[in-house]
């Protein structure tokens, strides 16, 4: 297990290094001088020179890359050009919206998908199954930002149950915060729930065909008891993998939903940074999102190895 | 999904929906009911019906004409993005399967890494550097598609390499490149077509999302995603502004998915396609 862990950690670090290099190189190929790009066409040469020095652009690409990585390792993401505040602080503020939103959406996804998948698998080939498949087919086709607009139209504009956007902050109480995140989380969760339902259904259908399920039925368990006691546990392994991957996706996908609801999360930060050409912020937020995906994959791998010991020997 | 009847049902529904959008996109090149960018302030936000079958937007532009022209953008972006993914991903996957060893290792590690960059994140990076445009959206979605096809191709090709007919081809003196092109590729074509349909539908969704947040097609290029973004503050006054482009996206994506499912069942019921 220790060797497996060491191997996985090694590949985690390797992936992060290469990812950071790719992001750095892409930002590096900005046509022309990044300082001039940031300041716009009318900037005076001395202002550009001052910004160049401030950004450390006078050094070589290698030394800039190394100092960027070294800074990040110490939690220093540099200083935003437009806001003159440390990028790490700006990101930390926004994470208080984006991470709870992704977690909320993940909980909803699981809460919808597991019962729906169970229902479809246990009624395989009957009306209930076709109903669930049909709904998931539509769920996969619905763009989440459009669904978000429809939710606003129904629940905020017509019924006035929720506000159409904005975030009061967690200082106003957890209830108020969760309330503001409810419609965004539903919008984010729906397409993911449709995908997870299909995974859950097909995993369970595979398990139901296994010999041990026949044995369970043969020893007198009812269909539902057999699914509950033996099927669910074995069927959940692939489902857990997808749930892990979905969290990373929800965090990145939340960027668009945050725009719909005007939530002050990572999405707003990155789109403002793009329009203001604040490349330091873009670079850091992108690195953070990629880091989240890579780290989640790593944790899923580890969880897999814990659940299925065979994988430790043949990673 | 089981049963031949269901398969043909989903194939037919999918084919009808996809053809409808393809025809709308093609026709819009030479004809639309009204001028796509023609504003008519006196006919602002008209509900569907009468002169304007799908209503008008806040500038009095005909929604049907915009949907038709938007189909052109949407389908073009998705087709080219799938093309990029296949053109780069399939040869990479074939090469990885033919040369187990360092090349395989390198390609697969690069693939793992590419999976860490969702299309949205690639688009953000590209846009931050080069500015937003439909071309950059195509590149972003295309890059995202490469590892999907590389992984699928490698997996399918690996199992073929152990088969007798490949061994026969090797005994006949054919090299890895020729075997990949003449024997492996034709045998995985079905799989690639099915996955291509699915990536196509994901491409339509991604294009809409990118245009919605302003990272995709720029005005005056018509785009479903931007129609939704424009309608956002007006949706309470005129719900059709959001419903019409939304339904266009949903029906075209649904059509592509049904077509993909139908094709899979028709071409080979045992095929398993990875959804990402």
Automatic annotation (TrEMBL), chain A:
CDD domains: TM_PBP2. The keyword NADP does not apply. It is found in: Cell membrane. Keywords: Cell membrane, Membrane, Transmembrane, Transmembrane helix, Transport. This is Peptide ABC transporter. The keyword Nucleus does not apply. One of its GO terms (molecular function) is dipeptide transmembrane transporter activity. Its main location: membrane. Residues 95-300 form the ABC transmembrane type-1 domain. The chain crosses the membrane at residues 12-30, 101-120, 132-157, 177-196, 236-257, 285-307.
TrEMBL record, chain B:
PROSITE patterns: ABC_TM1. GO terms for biological process: transmembrane transport. The chain crosses the membrane at residues 12-31, 75-98, 110-128, 237-260. Keywords: Cell membrane, Membrane, Transmembrane, Transmembrane helix, Transport. GO terms for cellular component: plasma membrane. Pfam families: BPD_transp_1 (PF00528). Signal peptide: none annotated. Residues 71-260 form the ABC transmembrane type-1 domain. InterPro entries: BP-dependent_transpt_permease, MetI-like, MetI-like_sf. It is found in: Cell membrane. Its main location: membrane. It is a multi-pass membrane protein. Belongs to the binding-protein-dependent transport system permease family. This is Peptide ABC transporter permease.
């Amino acid at each position: 297990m220790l060797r497996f862990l060491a191997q996985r950690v090694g590949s985690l670090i390797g992936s992060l290094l290469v990812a950071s290099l790719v992001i750095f190189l892409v930002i590096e190929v900005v046509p022309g001088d990044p300082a001039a790009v940031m300041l716009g066409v009318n900037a005076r040469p001395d202002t550009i020179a001052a910004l160049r020095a401030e950004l450390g652009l006078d050094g070589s690409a290698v030394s800039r890359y190394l100092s960027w990585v070294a800074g990040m390792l110490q939690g220093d993401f540099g200083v935003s050009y437009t806001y003159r505040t440390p990028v790490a602080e700006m990101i930390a503020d926004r994470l208080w919206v984006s991470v709870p939103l992704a977690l909320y959406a993940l909980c909803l996804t699981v809460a919808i998908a597991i019962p729906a998948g169970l229902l479809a698998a246990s009624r395989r080939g009957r009306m209930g199954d076709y109903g669930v498949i049909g709904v998931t087919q539509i769920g996969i086709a619905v763009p989440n930002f459009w669904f978000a607009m429809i939710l606003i139209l129904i629940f905020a504009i017509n019924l006035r149950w929720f506000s159409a956007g904005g975030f009061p902050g967690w200082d106003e109480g957890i209830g108020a915060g969760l309330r503001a995140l409810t419609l965004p989380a539903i919008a984010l969760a729906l397409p993911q729930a449709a995908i997870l339902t299909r995974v859950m259904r097909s995993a369970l259908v595979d398990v139901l065909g296994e010999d041990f399920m026949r044995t369970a039925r043969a020893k007198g368990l009812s269909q539902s008891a057999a699914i509950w006691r033996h099927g669910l546990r074995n069927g959940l392994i692939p489902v857990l993998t997808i749930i892990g991957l979905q969290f990373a996706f929800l965090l990145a996908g939340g960027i668009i939903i945050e725009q719909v609801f005007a939530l002050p999360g990572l999405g707003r930060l990155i789109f403002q940074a793009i329009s203001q050409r604040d490349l330091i912020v873009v670079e850091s937020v992108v690195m953070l999102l990629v880091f989240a995906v890579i780290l989640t994959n790593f944790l899923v791998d580890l969880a897999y190895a814990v659940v299925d010991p065979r994988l430790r020997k043949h990673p | 999904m089981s049963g031949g009847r269901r398969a043909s049902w989903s194939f037919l529904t999918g084919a009808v929906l996809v053809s409808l959008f393809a025809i709308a996109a093609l026709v819009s090149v030479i004809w639309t009911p009204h001028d796509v960018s023609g504003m008519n302030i006196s006919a602002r936000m008209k509900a569907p019906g009468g002169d304007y079958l799908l209503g008008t937007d806040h500038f009095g532009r005909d929604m049907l004409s915009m949907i038709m022209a938007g189909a052109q953008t949407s389908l073009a972006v998705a087709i080219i993005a799938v093309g990029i993914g296949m053109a780069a991903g399939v040869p990479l996957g074939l090469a990885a399967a033919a040369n187990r060893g360092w090349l395989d290792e390198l390609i697969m590690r690069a693939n793992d890494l590419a999976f860490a960059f969702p299309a949205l994140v690639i688009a953000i990076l590209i846009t931050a550097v080069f500015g937003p445009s439909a071309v950059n959206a195509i590149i972003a979605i295309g890059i995202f598609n490469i590892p999907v096809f590389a992984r699928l191709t490698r997996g399918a090709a690996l199992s073929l390499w152990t088969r007798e007919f490949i061994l026969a081809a090797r005994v006949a003196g054919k090299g890895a490149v020729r075997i990949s092109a003449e024997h492996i590729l034709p045998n995985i074509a079905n799989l690639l077509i099915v996955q291509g349909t699915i990536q196509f539908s994901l491409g339509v969704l991604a294009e809409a999302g990118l245009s919605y947040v302003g990272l995709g097609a720029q005005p005056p290029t018509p785009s479903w995603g931007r129609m939704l973004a424009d309608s956002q503050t007006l949706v309470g006054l005129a719900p059709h502004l959001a419903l019409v482009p939304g339904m266009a996206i949903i029906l075209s994506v649904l059509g592509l998915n049904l077509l993909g499912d139908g094709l899979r069942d028709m071409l080979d019921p045992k095929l398993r396609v990875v959804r990402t």
